[in-house]
Amino acid sequence: MPFTQISMNKGTSIEYRETLMEQIYLSMRATVDIPEDDRFATIAELEPGNLNNSGNYAGIERSENVVFIQITLNDGRTTEQKKALYTEIARRLEAELETRPEDVVISLIEVAAQDWSLGNGVAQYG
């Protein structure tokens, strides 16, 4: 059960945003074994001045087209799976949306299965 939150500057089309969410989902399916149709995601488009991409932090020159991707998911993935996920997301976004890999910033938040409620006030996994 991943939950993906995406933040980026305002100004993209609905098609871009839909493709962005789909490619992240497909990347997770290919690398970290998430269930089919597990597509919980949001996108926040930010007004100018509400996003700081840290310029060239860590030697990577990011542009104003940076996309921040934060994925909350159950713990237990290996380091190799996580690295594969980062690579796959960057590869797919470059191929499908012409997003520079330098502009793809990803963070994972791992939680225990009992930390989810998918509705009805019930911990479905715990």
Keyword list:
126 residues; alpha/beta; Macrophage Migration Inhibitory Factor; 2 helices; 4 strands
Describe this protein's structure.
Helices cover 29% and strands 24% of the residues. It has 126 residues and is of the alpha/beta class. The protein has one domain (3-115): Macrophage Migration Inhibitory Factor, CATH 3.30.429.10. β1 (3-9), α1 and β2 (40-46) form a beta-alpha-beta unit. The longest helix has 19 residues, at 79-97. The mean pLDDT is 95.
Give the helices and strands, then pairings.
Blueprint: E1 3-9, H1 14-31, E2 40-46, E3 67-74, H2 79-97, E4 104-111
Parallel strand pairs: 1-2, 3-4
Antiparallel strand pairs: 1-3
The proportion of residues forming helix, as a percent range, comes to: 25-40%
CATH topology: Macrophage Migration Inhibitory Factor
Percent strand equals 15-25%
- What is the C-level CATH assignment? Alpha Beta
Second-tier CATH architecture: 2-Layer Sandwich
**What's the gyration radius in Å?**
15 Å
Average pLDDT rating: 95
Offer a quick outline of the entry.
The chain is α/β, with parallel strands linked by helices and 126 residues long. The chain contains two helices and four strands. Helix 1 runs antiparallel to helix 2.
